[in-house]
Predict the structure.
Amino acid sequence: MNEADSEKMAGILCAAGYRLSGSPEEADVILINTCSIRDKAEQKAFSLAGRFAQLKRRRPGTLLVLTGCVAQKLGAGVLERAPAIDAVVGTGRMAELPELLERVRASGRPEVDTGEAASEEHPAAPVRSSRIKAWTNVMFGCDNHCAYCVVPSVRGRERSRKPVEVLAEVTALGRAGFREVTLLGQNVNSYGRGLVPAADFAGLLRAIDAASGVPRVRFTTSHPKDFSTGLMRAVRDLPSVCEAVHLPLQAGADAVLERMNRGYTLERYRRIIGELRETVPGVAVTTDIIVGFPGERTADFDDTLQALAEFRFDAIFSFRFSPREGTPACTMSGAVPEEESARRLIVLQALQREITEAGNAALIGREVEVLVEGPSRRDPGAWKGRTRTNRIVNFPAGDRPIVAGDFVNVRITGAGFLSLEGRVAAGDLVAARCG
Ligand code: SAM
Ligand code: SF4
């Protein structure tokens, strides 16, 4: 989501006559686009602001701008913590950036704007960091109220873009030769709520599959409470839609799920993941887990471990609970001591490592379709790409005429925790080429 916003802001500024600089040292304007989901992300933003403040002292006239969720959350409070910042721009005010910068230049005083968005549709095209993969928001904000989460307060109420706007953007990406588009929303399963005429996410996927010309479509994030059978069938039936679903569980104990206000029980989650795997054979399922939520007892954490062992996710993102001011969880009783939540995270990640490694090892000998993203970082003589299930595969370049954006059939020869190794499958080399 933040990467997509950064690309949008680059587009808005480029349309106003700016150019991307090669490094912060050469820039006239430095944007720090921030995340406030956990305290660590917020700390990182301020330490970056401190670093750029030193740079600004060496190059007076450089403008420092803080954007994104921390800007939205703290507003003018940002200037107290980071006085070198020249503008604080909230999540709805990206389109106003060029104007705000002009005002700062004219007055020499900092500007703070955290107002509401006039429109989510920006005339300026994003400056995309890849020519192969792109992001597209299908919706903004969130109407759920998970007890730990700042997103609803910094991103506002849920708003879906009209199908026609999304389809136009994705089709333009298809025409421009993009090979993969990820559709973004905090809860894509509730896409279309409130739109007139009515629309739903499965219908949007069908329209994109039929008309966009983009060979691979992904989406994130799915909320378990809104996952429909229709969506599962869309993933099964639509050739462009990748068989990979991110379905955050958060915790394995019903008491914790209830305190989190997640809106489902473990049994309901079990039914959803069961139906998904039955409907879409081979689907990869990934999840998010929070450990150390207030009131999480050792027995509750054991239930989470048990859930991991049962569901055997392909991968997980796991976090220690981070209290966020203004959220109900911040003032809940039963705080778990930091050392204990750190211990739980280590135990959880060790278990998942075994599960992920076993899942990856089970692919050895199989042939998979890989979208080539570029040279492998580990080995300059090799290529790196991703399977439809979003696993990273490295394979030797050899003397094949492969370029980034190609689809290549690769036979898996080795597997680790984070990536797979393979060789181009004999006889069948390049399935399609980027236009
Ligand atoms: N909308 C998505 C959903 O409901 O699953 C995810 C949104 S959030 C940006 C990504 C993940 O951050 C969440 O799934 C949760 O695991 C984690 N997260 C959010 N707030 C957190 C907090 N206060 N402490 C620790 N982890 C948190
Ligand atoms: Fe946050 Fe819950 Fe909304 Fe996800 S669904 S963004 S975790 S409030």
